[in-house]
Specification:
eight-stranded mixed β-sheet, about 50% helix, 19 helices, alpha/beta
């Protein structure tokens, strides 16, 4: 279960926040003026008569048997910030970005003030204290490693981590951020496809045969490929026929609807017998090592215990590179050394994961050339050994493909899928290519779901793929 997977919505604004502030004040020994909705403080006792008003010594009351925990006042912010924050959160639009803006208001850099405010947020969410402290500790370590201190340097990362931990990545605001990132990443592809389509629409009064022939050329030039381009054009012709209009003004909406249908994921069983074992496959140079690190990072932010296994035992420095990434993201790591049997690595890694309670095993494999039959046979052997050690393993085989390779990515997908069966595809380097049409080609030709796309080098730049967003970003 994710770190905060039980929290799908934040809180009932009128009651949960009142309870949270009262509880937070009781735990910290702080007091503030009551916010609307909180019980008023009792009236002060009347002053004593004048004749007994002389100073007298008053004994302090005995301490309770179990005193409430008191946290040191580490923040320079006055206690009244709690009430102000409470009122602001009540009136705010229910979006993570808006809440984060309020949490960060008046905070310029990382420090006691930020940690107190994050603690307050987690208390309001009824997050167990240990989990909240773990989240903050991880974030503080990341800040130290990156040598960041000012809010502009780390705000995006903090929101990304909160979105993952709270499972709010599909929130409207977060999706808007993803769409902007995807749109920027597709700029080169858009130059190849969309601008040519604009020219196509402006030069034809109707979607006639000449229109379709020119569209085929545009798609092929964008590395959609001949056969997938023909399939897409035929599907679009059917949509035009059903619409009853050949007006080119309607073409973009028809294309967008068709792309959404192409990328519509099929329902499948995702539950597994833990630990989940994921076999990562792909040729050298596609970004497989960094993709493994990014997947581990995402899973850990969602509260999963992750083990990375170094099954690429032949490429020079492959094990060392993977170990460095594992340390960077804080994941567990298992290796047997260079030239070890990859199947033995997989077997012993799963054994370790079962014994030590890991939730997820990411198994790296050699960056084999898809044309070498003996290396494909080795993949099949790894698959068999995993199943013998842990029933159902590997639960998923993920192929990592470099989007800049265009039609070569189609060849890789075909060979790997025939050898071991590919369950998912991750497309890397989509931000640096004019050949983004390969996304469409793979979806049409193989029907394998594209689950993530790489849009940069940062951990947060591995983004869930959404067909509707892709179509909108491509045709915007």
């Amino acid at each position: 279960m994710g770190l905060f997977s039980k929290i799908k919505k934040f809180w009932d604004v009128d009651s949960k926040l009142d309870e949270a502030v009262a509880r937070y004040q009781a735990e910290t020994g702080q007091a503030t003026s009551p916010a609307p909705g909180l019980a008023p403080a009792p009236e002060p006792a009347p002053p004593p008569p004048a004749e007994v008003a002389a100073p007298v010594r008053v004994e302090a009351p005995a301490a309770p048997a179990t005193p409430p925990p008191v946290r040191p006042a580490t923040s320079e912010i006055a206690p009244e910030w709690q009430t102000s924050l409470l009122l602001a959160l009540r009136e705010a639009e229910p979006k993570l970005s808006v809440w984060l803006s309020l949490i960060l208001a008046g905070v310029d850099k990382a420090g006691p003030a930020l940690w107190e405010r994050l603690e307050f947020l987690f208390t309001a969410l009824e997050v167990p204290a240990a989990e909240a402290q773990e989240f903050i500790a991880r974030f503080r370590k990341w800040l130290a490693d990156m040598e960041y201190s000012s809010v502009p340097e780390f705000r995006s990362e903090l929101q990304y981590r909160l979105a993952l931990a709270l499972e709010l990545e599909d929130e409207e605001d977060e999706r808007s951020r993803l769409l902007l990132k995807l749109s920027a990443g597709l700029e080169k592809t858009r130059e190849t496809i969309t601008r040519r389509i604009e020219g196509l629409l402006s030069s034809h009064a109707a979607m006639d045969e000449g229109f379709w022939q020119e569209l085929e050329e545009i798609l092929i030039m964008a590395d959609v490929g001949f056969e997938p381009a023909m399939k897409l054009v035929n599907a679009l012709k059917d949509r035009v026929r059903k619409s009853g209009s050949k007006d080119p003004a309607q073409f973009k909406e028809l294309l967008k609807a068709e792309l959404e249908e192409i990328f519509k994921p099929a329902k499948r069983i995702t539950a597994v017998n833990p630990p989940e074992v994921v076999m990562m496959i792909g040729v050298n140079g596609v970004g497989k090592t960094t993709t493994i690190a990014k997947l581990a990072y995402r899973a850990m932010m969602q509260g999963r215990k992750v083990l990375i296994a170094a099954g690429d035992t032949f490429r020079a420095a492959a094990i060392e590179q993977l170990e460095i990434w594992a340390r960077r993201v804080g994941a567990g790591f298992f290796a047997k050394g260079e030239n070890a049997d990859p199947a033995a690595v997989a077997f012993e890694a799963i054994d370790k994961a079962i014994a030590e309670g890991y939730d997820l095993v990411l198994l790296d494999t050699a960056g084999r050339l898809q044309t070498k039959v003996n290396l494909m046979e080795e993949l099949k052997k790894i698959e068999r050994v995993c199943g013998k050690k842990h029933a159902g393993a590997p639960h998923r085989s993920i192929l990592v493909v470099d989007a800049t390779t265009g039609q070569n990515a189609m060849s890789q997908t075909k060979i790997f899928n025939e050898a071991v069966g590919v369950d998912e595809i991750i497309l890397t380097k989509l931000d640096g290519t004019s050949k983004g049409g390969i996304v469409v080609a793979i979806a049409i030709e193989f029907g394998i779901p594209i689950t993530f796309v790489g849009l940069g080098e940062k951990m947060e730049d591995l983004r869930p793929f959404n067909g509707k967003d892709f179509a909108q970003a491509l045709l915007s």
